[in-house]
Amino acid sequence: MRRYARSSDFVRASVRSRNGRDRAALLTLRPEAYPLAPAWLDAIAQAAPETADHRHPSAAMSSVRLLTRMTPDHRNGTPRQLDGSVGWSMPGASARVWPDGRIELRSTIGAELAGQLEGSEWDSWKVAAVADAGLRLLCAPEARHLTRTGQPSGWHRPFDRSDSAGLGRERRGGQMYDGSTVASCSCG
Fold first, then answer.
1. 22, 99, 128, 154: least surrounded by Cβ within 10 Å?
2. Contact between residue 135 and residue 72 where contact means Cβ atoms under 8 Å apart
3. Are 169 and 115 in contact (CB under 8 A)?
4. pTM for this one?
5. What are the pLDDT digits (tens) for 124-181?
């Protein structure tokens, strides 16, 4: 990390790719984001690709939002803007990601995490991991653990499953209904 200019109120931090030579991200940190910087830099370093070139990421922006865990509802569609970016918000924070690798995360209290992901090795999964980490730092405390439930298993034949105990509703043909679902949390 280093101060960009003597009179500026922000610093620039670079994150190296895993090979240690290439720059994978260049971040802009303002004073209100300084306390969040170590955690966000660590998350970006964990997601950084093995190598980086100076091209744009190969991430599909529509996929980034669908892959993020810190999204209240995936059924809302992707709010794609004219500039190709996608954005979403959650209680206390919002995110926007551009096809050229820019990422901007803002909290409602004024903290901002911004940066430029560099290299064609950044895919949708890695960009989503960076967005997740920043949103988890900026969002309201009650939004840090967003839970989602899956679809019920539905009708099945008892002998098609090894875990079937024969409980539940039964219908013709010997099928049983399983209404249980799996819940997942945004923290993993």
1. 154
2. no
3. no
4. 0.71
5. 899 989 998 898 888 877 767 777 677 777 777 766 555 545 455 556 667 777 777 7
